[in-house]
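Design request, tokens follow.
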């Protein structure tokens, strides 16, 4: 039996836990790791600008209906994974689980299609899905994604594959594979849906409850089911190819011929469907051999009906999203994340009192010139300050001794070769130059 005292202790223990433990499925990115994110973010910006993309930032939360309409009701995300809440005005809002529907909403709301087409936008930021966390699958994760609005050109489908491949290569990643399929359009799907229903109906008893509930509402969703027990039935499901209408067939063969012409390797996967209802025609996914079951490092496709579905005029579009956490995981496994030795350009050693005031003043001057400068805030001994400078890997140490200060000077010690010289405190420009030179 639990006594009241024990019960109160447990409650307190639980409260303490929530103060010192992050929510399940989330990650802290601390110093030591954040540098890799910065580098990747820089690469993303570079590759996006080479392809003519501009950044779009949308809110972290949107009206729930945007995702229900945009992603589709009979999808895992909308049925089970959204973080949805009522705000104090009783409006239903949802933490964004993906970036395409918000990008379309922003494209329409800001009339971004008014100028010349196509419009190329990219986004970068956290997404939220209530999934079962495991390595590479989180409840908060970062996606970099991009969208092209206003052209049905199959070359854009191909560029939507090439851009992330450029990024993966620029990061040094190898061993990834592109899978591609066409899932047709509203014109060619009804017959395929019928064929799927006829195939699944006699086999549905052995399948999971999601598959059972979606069989008649959205049979293509079944192809995306990840439940182990359903996989054997899924492997035998008929592919869409023979149902594709002339336009979709033509589009897909042009996509493939551009891929061949541009030397992009890919694998046809006739059962690739993706977890969103908005896709039409081409869908693709990139997987990394380095990751376990969560091996998709990016995915995308064409979605020619979504802009209209969300209230705009018919506007063809294509996009892609890269899972940034997973890309970094794959790079880590391949030993491609190397931390660079960093450290301040100068560590200012002082003796307290007036020497500390002068050090603070010089620190401010050097920092305003862009140098990384550290000084002691713990009133440590000179020996301890020198040790701290060493530990931080500082290139120079500036020693503010009383006797030197009386003469208006400071000792500059190069920590690599131990060489010491004096600098004039009246000539701070000279000092900054010296720091710049020594720190190279
Ligand atoms: P999706 O938006 O589902 O097409 O996913 C695009 C990419 O985002 C995937 O290929 C993954 O790399 C990444 N991703 C999706 N869901 C998660 C998650 N729960 N945790 C980490 N990365 C994810």
């Amino acid at each position: 039996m639990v006594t009241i005292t024990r019960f109160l202790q447990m409650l307190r223990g639980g409260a303490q836990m929530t103060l010192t433990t992050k929510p399940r499925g989330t990650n802290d990115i601390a110093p030591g790791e954040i540098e890799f994110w910065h580098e990747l973010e820089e690469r993303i910006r570079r590759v996006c600008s080479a392809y003519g993309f501009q950044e779009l930032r949308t809110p972290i939360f949107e009206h729930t209906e945007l995702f229900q309409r945009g992603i589709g009701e009979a999808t895992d995300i909308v049925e089970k994974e959204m973080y949805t809440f009522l705000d104090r005005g009783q409006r239903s809002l949802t933490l964004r689980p993906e970036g395409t529907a918000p990008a379309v909403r922003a494209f329409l709301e800001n009339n971004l299609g008014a100028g010349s087409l196509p419009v190329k936008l990219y986004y970068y930021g956290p997404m939220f899905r209530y999934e079962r966390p495991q390595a590479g699958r989180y409840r908060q994760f970062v996606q970099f994604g991009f969208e092209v609005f206003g052209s049905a050109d199959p070359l854009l489908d191909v560029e939507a594959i090439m851009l992330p491949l450029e990024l993966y290569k620029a990061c040094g990643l190898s061993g990834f594979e592109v899978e591609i399929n066409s899932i047709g359009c509203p014109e060619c799907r009804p017959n395929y849906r019928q064929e799927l229903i006829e195939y699944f109906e006699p086999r549905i008893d052995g399948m999971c409850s999601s598959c059972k509930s979606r069989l008649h509402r959205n049979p293509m969703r079944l192809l995306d089911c990840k439940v182990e027990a359903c996989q054997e039935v899924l492997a035998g499901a008929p592919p869409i190819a023979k149902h594709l209408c002339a336009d979709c067939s033509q589009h897909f063969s042009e996509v493939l011929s551009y891929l061949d012409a541009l030397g992009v390797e890919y694998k046809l996967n006739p059962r690739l469907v993706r977890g969103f209802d908005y896709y039409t025609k081409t869908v693709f996914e990139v997987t990394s051999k380095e990751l376990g079951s969560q091996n998709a490092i990016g995915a995308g496709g064409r979605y020619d009906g979504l802009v209209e579905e969300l209230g705009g005029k018919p506007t063809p579009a294509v996009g892609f999203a890269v899972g940034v956490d997973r890309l970094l995981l794959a790079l880590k496994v391949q030993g491609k994340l190397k931390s660079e030795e960093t450290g301040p350009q100068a560590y200012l050693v002082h003796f307290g009192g007036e020497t500390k005031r002068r050090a603070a003043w010089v620190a401010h001057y050097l920092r305003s010139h862009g140098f990384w400068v550290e000084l002691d805030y713990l009133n440590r001994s000179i020996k301890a300050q020198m040790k701290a400078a060493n530990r931080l890997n500082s290139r120079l140490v500036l020693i503010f001794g009383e006797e030197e200060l009386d003469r208006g000077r400071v000792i500059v010690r190069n920590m690599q070769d131990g060489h010491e010289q004096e600098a004039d405190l009246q000539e701070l420009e000279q000092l900054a130059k010296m720091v710049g030179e020594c720190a190279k």
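Comment from the thread starter after seeing the answer: thanks! The mean pLDDT is 93.
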